[in-house]
Specification:
Elements: H1 5-9, H2 14-27, E1 33-34, H3 46-58, H4 70-84, E2 93-96, H5 98-110, E3 116-120, H6 126-133, E4 137-141, H7 152-157, E5 163-169, H8 181-194, E6 197-201, E7 231-236, E8 249-252, H9 255-268, H10 274-285, H11 289-310, E9 325-326, H12 337-348, E10 350-351, E11 353-354, E12 364-367, H13 372-386, E13 393-396, E14 399-402
Parallel strand pairs: 1-10, 3-4, 3-5, 5-6, 6-7
Antiparallel strand pairs: 2-8, 7-8, 9-12, 11-12, 13-14
Helix pairs in contact: 3-10, 4-10, 5-6, 5-9, 11-13
The structure holds pyridoxal-5'-phosphate (PLP).
Amino acid sequence: MSLSQLARSINESPTLKLNETAALLKDKGEPVIHLGGGEPKSKAPIDAIVSCTALLRTGDVKYTPADGIPALKKAIIRYTEEHYDRLVPPENVIASSGAKQSLMVLLHAILDPQEEVVYPAPYWVSYPEMVKIAGGAPIAVTAADGGFQPTVDEMAQAMGPYTKAVILNSPNNPSGVVYSDEFVAGVMELCERRNLYLIMDDTYNRLIFDGRTPTNCYRFSKDLTIDSSKLVVINCVSKMYAMTGFRIGWTIGAKDLIRAMTNIQSQETSGPAAPSQWAAVGALTGVQSSIESLRLTLENNRNIMMTRLEAFNGVKTVKPGGTFYCFPDFSAYEKDSQKLSRFLLDKVRVVTVPGKEFGMDGHLRLSYCGTPKEVTEGIERIKWALDPTAPNELYLGNRKIVRDWQ
Ligand SMILES: Cc1ncc(COP(=O)(O)O)c(C=O)c1O
């Protein structure tokens, strides 16, 4: 078959593939524990469901404006005022079909061929592929100290004449690290000095632990007016409101940029699905307690996972400050994270995501968005599989596994 160069250069999303594999194994009755997941288990807020079904009941489900219905834009404006202390006009807002589409349309709007987008490693798996789809060149910056946050100098050294934008995702998928204020402020200063776009991917902004306050990137910007600024902020209802399936994300940026994004989106997909937009209106304007209850559940799960991992000889961990992921270093057991991930799925039916996909081999991304029981049992199975001194047999449900490896 003749496919484009682009199609041949783009890899499948490894996390979505793992979800499929896990679902297939579960369908076959396999006792799978999914520590690879990227979505909270909780239900969508009731206000989202009520608002969505109110539209569905009318049967009048039609195209919407390409940049989103006015009610959603109004709700996004309110959210931005409340959580970022910024009052933005509707012309500075575009709603899209998930933060994924927000990022994709944004990259199409700003990148010329081969222009570079710089971001720290570890990074969300989709950044390199998205930048490539938009014709750009992805540049990951790895901290020399082996940590999860490079220095501002290391970011600066990765930039050159073709650099167009920087992406920061904090709290970070996959490490769970919340970048320090100094780092965000330093990267902002760098971008403003070099006239680069700074894309803040705030998908997990409020899912943070240990009494932290969510980072408000606008605090660090010297550009006083939104229309003169190249700071672009992406958000979505997917994780914070547990609404991954609704596919609603949004972008706040300069008016000219938002207009360009709207033109692209109007040709690509038109506005996001109307029922989903109304669901997002319900979530954003309704009772907000579901976020705090999800945050508390995740913090508790994070603590359970950390306690288990800390008792794991040879595994190096960094305590996540947010999200529902952590990114332990298993290289003392196996440096090839794809091999290790496959081994754990084959032998003890635990799904993990190889660190290589996030730009750091030797690590595994483990999610704690499941139940405490899943988190506990998942880590216990991994430990059993990797510890040669563990008893020779393990029960997965009522199935006995006998070690046939060293
Ligand atoms: C860092 C990051 N950005 C963006 C997204 C995309 O979110 P959405 O489901 O709204 O497209 C994800 C989803 O996993 C993510 O982890």
